Amino acid sequence: MNSIPRAFRACLLAAALLPATAFATENGLGTYPIGVNTVLNGVLPPPGGTQFYNYSLFYVANKFAGPDGNAAVPGFRSAVFVDAPRVVHTWGTMLGPFAISSGIVVPVARVNVDAAGSSGTRTGLGDIILQPFMIGYTNPDKTFFTFLSPDVSLRTGSYSSTRLANIGTNYYAFQPNLNATWFPSPKWELSATAQLEVHSPNHATQYHSGTIGSIDWLVGYAIGKKLQVGVQGYYLKQVSDDKQNGQRVGPDGFRGQAAAIGPQLRYVFGPAAAVVLKYQHEFAVRNRSKGERIWIEFAFPI
């Protein structure tokens, strides 16, 4: 364990995390569930409506990529399962053409990490994400949907600086994001989410992770009224350096990078109710774990 650089140690998960199960920044970790938003990204419940969402992630990585993309941690392997329920309510009062929604994401995860002859396993509550007010807009033709949300990730997950595997990150994160869905025709869907993630310091390690920018995206095509097929993925880039005790970490600031692409299927089983299956293959990874993700997501009104 002591042979592993501090920047590579521990955890590998946070919440919202739903997928954020990849190192980048301290431990190569961010709290946003990168890759999760590839389904009707800009659509929120109608005024007065409440929607339940559930995101399940299976993630396996056999490589921790260094700044040159080559393996940086000997014997590295991670296996993660995350289940993250989310509830969103849209309030009945409109502000002109804008609707206001609020939501919460409560992830539960099991994380197993092996590295340099050491191993760790942890199961429990992750870092809860609050979405206190989402400002949404829908055009009159119902072909364009968008919302802006200043999400906040709380420090609720279990964490210890001496553990190889952690569920929480031990820092707060501010995650402003812009989400949009456009239907250029009844059969085609184009969706995307653009986000920044800004972290508070981890006072247990005196480590301050750099700011991360990311984009989740989807190009979907409807086959009939119930089935949609699509191609989706994400791109993540760290835009500022990691620092420890006020000093830059490594020659490159331990700046993370990752991209992924894969197929997606969505099946509608009722009004505002659907299930999604998707796969994401990671590539162009730097200072993060590199692996494969399988998602099962579903939603329905409550």
Using the coordinates shown, work out and report the CATH topology: Lipocalin
Beta strand count:
17
- The structural class is mainly beta
Count of individual domains: 1
Strand fraction: over 45%
How would you write the strand order of the largest sheet? 1-2-3-6-7-8-9-11-12-15-16-17
DSSP summary: helix tally: 0
Classified in CATH, the superfamily is Autotransporter beta-domain
Radius of gyration: 19 Å
Signal peptide: 1-24
Protein name: Phenol degradation protein meta
InterPro entries: FApF
Organism: Cupriavidus pauculus
Can you summarize this structure?
By secondary structure, this protein is an all-beta fold. It is 0% helix and 58% strand.
Describe the structure.
By secondary structure, the chain is mostly beta strands. It has one domain (26-301): Beta Barrel (Lipocalin). It contains no helices and 17 strands. A 12-stranded antiparallel beta barrel has the order 1-2-3-6-7-8-9-11-12-15-16-17. Strands 10-13-14 form a 3-stranded antiparallel sheet, with no helix packed on it. A hairpin with a 3-residue loop joins β11 (212-223) and β12 (227-238). The protein is globular, with a radius of gyration of 19 Å. Residues 1-24 have low confidence and may be disordered. Residues 1-24 form the signal peptide. Keywords: Signal. InterPro entries: FApF.
